[in-house]
Each structure stands twice: as C-alpha cells, then as structure tokens.
Recover the amino acids of this structure.
C-alpha cells in the first residue's frame, strides 16, 4: 500500500459516496470499495459513531490504495466484515472529503436526508466488553418491567426522587455489578457527541451494536432517561463512573430529544440547542450545524463552513433574542429572519439571556450578549424555569421588551400580514435600566465531598465520616458568614435564626422556591413552615461537625437519621439550587445570588419586559453581560416599579 488514496472530485447535487467492506479473511488488512451513487437511487446503511482521537490511525485498503482511519471506525468496519454485511455503508469520515470545504458544506447540508433515507442506522458503541451482556440483560428487564414503551418524555421533568427497585424486583444500584455495566453503557462516548442527535432522530429504523451484541435502541434510550431522572440511580452512576467525562444528563437529553421529536417534530434551533448543552464536536460550528436538520425553518444556506464559530453563534443569538426561528437567504444574497406564528402577540424572548447560570462566552470567544446555548449547565436552579416572565400574566400587566435593531426601533408588522420578515440586523440594543451595584460577593459555597466508590472496611467508613464532618463544619461557618453579610446588625455569636431579617435570609437560600415546581401555580412562593425545617437542617449540620460517631456509632446513627428526616424538606429544596451562584449584597442592602464571574462594582440591571435581573459590567459605552441573578423580593415584577429608573437602549459587547 505505497499509494495513498485521494478523492478525485468534489461531490455535487445529490451524489454521495458509499463504502463496501470486502468479505476477506479477518487476518487480512481491512479492504473497502468506495463508489459514488445518487442518494435517492440506492439502498444503504448509515453508521452513527464517535470519531474518537485521531492521534492513532489504522491503515486500510480503499480502492486498492492506502487510507488511514480512526480506531473506532476501523473496529466498526471490522465488525461489519465479521457479520458478513454486504450492503453499502455511509460513514462520514470516509464518505466526505474532510479537506474540501465546498464538499463538506454541501454534504453536511444533506446529512439529514442521508440518515433519513438509509435503510438502517447502526449505532456503534464500540467493541464488546465482558460485562456488556449483564448490562444488556438488565436494560431489557428494566424496559419490560417498567413498561418503557408507554414512556412520556415530558412527564416528571421536575421530579428527582429515588427509583423503587424493590417494587419492580430489580436489584438496588449501589455497588451492583449489573447496574455498573448499565452505567458504563450509557456513559459511552457516543452519548456525548452532538451529531448523533440528528442521526438518531431522523432514522426510519435503528439498531445499537456493541461488538457482536445487538441492542434495542428504544430500551437503551429509555434507561438513559430513567437513570437521569432518579436520584439513587443518578448518584450511583456518579460513584461508578468516578468523574465521568460524559454526564448521564447527556444520555438523558439525547433520549428525551428522541422521544420529543417523535411526538412533536422539530423545534426552533435555539430551543433544540438548549436541550442538548455541552455535547462534543471536533469543530465548534458543528454544535449548531449538527442540529440544523432537526430544527424548524432553516434554509440549507444556514450551514456554511466559511463562517467562523463566532459568526455562527452571533446569528443564532440574534434569532434567539428576537424569537425568529426561520432563516433563509434570498436571491440577492440577503440573510432574512422570518416569524410566521402569532405575529401580533409576539414578545421578544430576551429571557434567554438568563438561561445559563454562568455563561461561558468569554471561554467560547463569543460576544457576551449571545445566550450560551453551548456550555453544560452549572449545577442548581435553572431560573428561567421558575421565573419565566410569562408566568406573571395572571397577576399583573406585563411590559413588552423593547429592542432596537441598528438605529431603528422595530414595531409590529401590519395586522394583515401573516408573516414578519426582517434582514439579519448588525446589532441588537435592548432597553434597560441600572438600579443597583454589587458591594460584596461572598466566598464560594463549600464543595460536597466526593462519594466513596467503596466502603470495604472500618477505615474507609471513618474516612468517609471525617470528610462529611469537615464539609459540614465548613458549611456552618459559611452559613454564619453570609448570614452576617445579609444583616451586619446581628450579634456574631448569636443564633443564625435571630432577627426579623431571618425570613428574607432563609428564603434567599432557596431562591424563594420550594422543593417542587407546580405547573398549576408556578409563581407560588415557599411556604413559611419550611423555616422550621431550616432549623433542623442547620442543627443536623452542627451535629455532623461534632464527630459523635467516635463515642458510639449506634446512638449517633439513630440521632443522625432522625435529624436527617426532620431536615429533609429543606435539604431537598436547597439541593435543587446549590452551587449555581455566589451570595452577594448590593450597595442598597439587597441580598441574593450572582454568577461566579461577578465582581464588586458590577451593576445590577433590569431589562424592560424581563422578570429576571442581570449583572452587567461597563465596557466603555457598552456593557458586558455577566449573567442572570436572583435579588430577593424583586423577582415578581417589582423591578419594573422601582422609583427613578432611567430607561435607555443599551449596547452590549
């Protein structure tokens, strides 16, 4: 194989390349034939797989010449030869000339059609491991026992309780080897790749291959949702996988996207992006382009590899803040955004600026005003889920967001029109007002101790207890510190529950939200009786820091369990919001939570028509968006009623 394979021409129109694995003895070098066919005139399979590291590549014969491919793709083709599969196969690494930008753009624009046209999409999870059979059997048993075929992707999104294993005659997950095998299956790198979403969603028929094993796609996806939505399974996944590179939430999100797409069809590009955060792609632009085929109303010209990632992100950011999901390029080459539904009731959805607790725009190299629909979510509360401005409709009149595109203030189109079309603006300005300034930002909340993978002996147990005691000691000191920041008039040696300011303090710890989200009453505040469980929660922490298990483990265990039960309501509520932001105090004495990048001197801003305030940092005559914040007693529309607000159109960097 001295001659190296080269692509002879750029593919055009509806032409694709397909490969056929030659059925030679397995001891020989893998050999394929690569041919060109019209997409609509050929039967073929399509491969959904992970490229993996390309540092190590394996040579194969392609049309008699040498072609180096990735290890994972080589394993998939080798398995195809072992199974004696003769049908042509489409695999992007070989079938697209990755060095030809023109071809890559045209072929990626066709990828939705390629996977939708394929007779079968093969999901390749890699070579078989010894434990995979046990994992597969448990997946099938769970799917059968729980009636997975009746699963509703939209049910129980806000629930996070333990899965009842006993009721379904399933072994408990903690330190169970069969569950460990399941966790390794859904922790596979395939579940962290952005392209697999489109490949899976549009497939007419799909099957999962793990080496020689065949798996039911629906069963694997259903179990991914199961693990991602139940506390004991989720925690066990974290213990077994250590610090997993691929979160179980990624697997859950792919599965939920699959069921949602089957139920409701495609959504706006920004909505689809928001449901699949942190997914991997070798090329950052593919974080967007990979989802174009399962999104609404996007012209093929939307996918263009001549754009930089920054340019792609800015285009999506403008579509997001304006709420215009449709994009097309007209004959003159002008980029147009189009809105077709509910034109006269349209509100610019600027709440997307609050979507991410800690936007990573500075790391991504994109402007601060672009909603971060790319980075994994921070732990804790997604405030837009609880403080959506539209939830206030029944309780007060809502001001509409006001935006200016360039120098023009855009108004609604004529009522007679059934669509609203605008050119992609160079800039979006939003009307807002500064109402406060950050005076103090507290130190970070103590980090939870890492769960121990095993407790094989007394020494392991004592070590785990010591780690918990150290954490709870740090928590008690941290709570005392932020309590004094919230109310400096308190006696530093007094009770944390002293003073009339205590009500505001404990409510702020929960973002004034209870353990549950109530669809029928989403604006409902935390009930006052939860303050009692705060007392038990705080006592539980002080009990843990006293290390009394050394005096008598049985008595300590009884007291610990009793306090834990009494503290459970507050623990559950606080657990939903922790580690998302830092506690802060403003110049005017307000308290709340701000993004981690917030600094003293940053400004607190309200945008017209947006319920959630923002932290902004001055940059000359413009503003850098640091992120959304919680300001106690100003989260239910009171912002718009503050005195002396000086509204003006704000420009952002």
């Amino acid at each position: 194989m001295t001659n190296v394979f080269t692509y002879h021409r750029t593919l055009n129109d509806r032409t694709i390349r397909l490969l056929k694995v030659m059925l030679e003895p397995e001891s020989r070098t893998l050999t394929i034939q690569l041919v060109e066919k019209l997409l609509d005139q050929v039967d073929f399979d399509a491969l959904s797989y992970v490229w993996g590291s390309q540092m190590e590549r394996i040579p194969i014969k392609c049309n008699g010449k040498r072609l180096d491919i990735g290890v994972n793709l080589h394993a998939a083709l080798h398995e195809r030869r072992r199974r004696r599969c003769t049908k042509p196969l489409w695999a992007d690494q070989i079938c697209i000339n990755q060095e030809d930008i023109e071809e890559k753009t045209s072929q990626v624009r066709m990828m939705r059609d390629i996977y939708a046209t394929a007779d079968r999409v093969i999901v390749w999870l890699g070579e078989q491991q010894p434990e995979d059979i046990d994992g597969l059997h448990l997946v099938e048993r769970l799917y059968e026992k729980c009636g997975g075929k009746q699963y509703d992707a939209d049910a129980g999104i806000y629930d996070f309780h333990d899965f009842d294993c006993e009721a379904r005659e399933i072994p408990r997950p903690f330190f169970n080897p069969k569950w460990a095998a399941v966790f390794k299956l859904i922790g596979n790198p395939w579940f962290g790749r952005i392209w697999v979403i489109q490949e899976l969603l549009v497939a007419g028929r799909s099957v999962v291959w793990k080496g020689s094993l065949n798996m039911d796609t629906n069963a694997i996806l259903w179990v991914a949702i199961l693990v991602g939505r139940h506390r004991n399974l989720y925690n066990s996944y974290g213990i077994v996988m250590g610090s997993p590179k691929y979160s179980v939430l990624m697997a859950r999100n792919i599965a939920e996207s699959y069921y949602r797409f089957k139920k409701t069809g495609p959504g706006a590009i920004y909505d689809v992006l928001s449901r699949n955060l942190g997914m991997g792609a070798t090329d950052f632009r593919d974080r967007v382009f990979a989802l174009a085929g399962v999104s609404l109303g996007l012209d093929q010209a939307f996918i263009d590899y001549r754009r930089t990632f920054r340019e792609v992100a800015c285009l999506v950011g403008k579509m997001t803040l304006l709420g215009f999901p449709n994009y097309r390029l007209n004959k003159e080459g002008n980029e147009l955004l189009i809105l077709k539904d509910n034109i006269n009731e349209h509100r610019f959805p600027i709440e997307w600026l609050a979507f991410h607790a800690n936007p990573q725009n500075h790391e991504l190299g994109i402007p601060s005003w672009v909603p971060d629909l790319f980075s994994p979510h921070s732990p804790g509360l997604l405030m837009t889920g609880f403080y959506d401005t539209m939830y206030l409709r029944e309780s007060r009149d809502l001001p509409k967001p006001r935006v200016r595109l360039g120098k023009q203030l855009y108004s609604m189109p004529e009522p007679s029109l059934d669509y609203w079309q605008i050119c992609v603006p160079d800039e979006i300005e939003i009307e807002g007002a500064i109402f406060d300034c950050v005076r103090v930002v507290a130190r970070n909340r103590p980090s939870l101790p890492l769960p121990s993978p095993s407790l094989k002996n007394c020494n392991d147990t004592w070590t785990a207890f010591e780690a918990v005691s150290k954490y709870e000691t740090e928590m008690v000191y941290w709570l005392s510190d932020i309590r004094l920041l919230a109310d400096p008039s308190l006696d530093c040696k007094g009770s944390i529950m002293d003073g009339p300011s205590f009500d505001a303090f404990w409510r702020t710890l929960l973002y004034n939200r209870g353990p549950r989200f109530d669809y029928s009453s989403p604006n409902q505040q935390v009930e006052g009786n939860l303050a009692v469980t705060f007392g038990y929660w705080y006592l539980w922490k002080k009990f843990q820091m006293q290390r009394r298990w050394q005096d008598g483990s049985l008595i300590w265990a009884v007291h610990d369990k009793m306090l834990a039960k009494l503290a459970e309501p507050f623990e559950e509520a606080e657990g939903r919001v922790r580690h998302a932001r830092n506690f802060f105090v403003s110049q005017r004495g307000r308290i709340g939570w701000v993004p981690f990048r917030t600094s003293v001197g940053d400004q607190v801003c309200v945008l017209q028509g947006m319920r959630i305030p923002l932290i902004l940092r001055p940059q000359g005559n413009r503003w850098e968006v640091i992120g959304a914040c919680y300001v106690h007693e100003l989260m239910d529309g009171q912002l718009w009623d503050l005195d002396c607000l000086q509204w003006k159109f704000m420009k952002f960097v």
About this structure: Residues 15-124 form one domain.
